[in-house]
Amino acid sequence: MTSGPGVDRHDTLLPCAGKRRRRWRLGLAALLLCTLPPLAAAPLDVFVSVLPLATFAERVGGERVQVHTMVQPGHSPATYEPTPRQITALANADLYLRVGVPFEDAWMKRIRATNPDMPVVDLREGLSLRRQEAHRHGAAGGDDHGAQAHEHGPLDAHVWTSPRLVRQMAETMRAAFTELDPAGAVTYAEQQAAFDAELAALDAQLQARLHGLANRRFLVYHPAWGYFADAYGLTQIPIEQEGKEPGARRLTALIEQARAEGARVILVQPQFDQRAAAQVARAIDGRVEPVDPLSPEYAATLRRLADILMAADAGTAAGAPKAAHREQAPREQAPREQTP
């Protein structure tokens, strides 16, 4: 067969070859699509109030969650105000995990209004809650009604300072993640179980280390360690109460109580003014120890706190005779202080 005048034979063949190449490419693309794994679902967009909760959520959710923390390092949950960028990001969030820190009480209506369809899960659900120490009669309060604590303050939001409560909170997280992402149920269950085992081991370790403390009371500036203290049979004595600096009378009473009990350490956290704690520490010839309950390094922080309390207890035991002598003076003067 010959080509017509002015027509090249290749011109009649090229269109057919081009069609074959296109069909081959389409077939290859279809083959690749069949062999590629399905695209992974986008991670859940989860917001939490403070950094320890972010640590817990990441342990339970793993790569299936993307966690954002509202209160940034160096800020206090009592006074924090969300940034415009955070409010904008909340509009696309899948879940908010709250724990009752003060800024949430002030902002929760606006947070919900930003994203009405976003579930808000309260991690305190099912937990046994305590109240912050509002005032203390006796040595620390400067009153003459006996040395006993009265818990009439607000609910204590620092539930995460007890590993036992965190185990329950992690279960609540697992359930919330699973409800929103049923395909990840097995992953969430496995990761929560592994985290639970770590928390149980941490709890057992802290219990063993703190069980033998002779002095089971410790001074803190801000009363953030109440749940930790309750878990291990300890008592925190706060300098600041209900967000207020101590007056001269209370400060003097705290110093006398610390001397009587042989206290040599005061726990502080970086989000609060430490001048009052430093004043007490100077008066008792003690030291200020920073321990941050908002640290994302959860287990390391609790172990360090146990180390500090054990070291302080060893110092107290070494000075026990001196402390006992200091306690005798108020008892000898007590009859003269009685009212008719």
CATH class annotation: Alpha Beta
The CATH topology label is Rossmann fold
Low-confidence stretches: 1-14, 135-151, 319-340
Q: What count of structural domains?
A: 1
Name the CATH homologous superfamily. Answer: Nitrogenase molybdenum iron protein domain
Structural class: alpha/beta
Number of strands: 10
The amount of helix comes to 40-55%
Cα shape: globular
Query: What is the succession of H and E elements?
Result: HEHEHEHEEEHHEHEHEHEHH
* Spatial arrangement of strands, main beta sheet: 2-1-3-4
- The CATH architecture term is 3-Layer(aba) Sandwich
Report on the biggest sheet.
4 strands, parallel
Separate helix tally: 11
Average residue pLDDT? 80
Terminal-residue CA separation: 135 Å
Radius of gyration, in angstroms, nearest whole number: 31 Å
How large a portion of the residues is in β-strands, by DSSP E?
5-15%
Could you characterize the architecture of this molecule?
The protein has 340 residues and is an alpha/beta fold. The protein has eleven helices and ten strands. The strands form three sheets. The protein has a four-stranded parallel β-sheet, covered by helices on one side. Strand 3 (95-98), helix 4 (102-114) and strand 4 form a beta-alpha-beta unit.
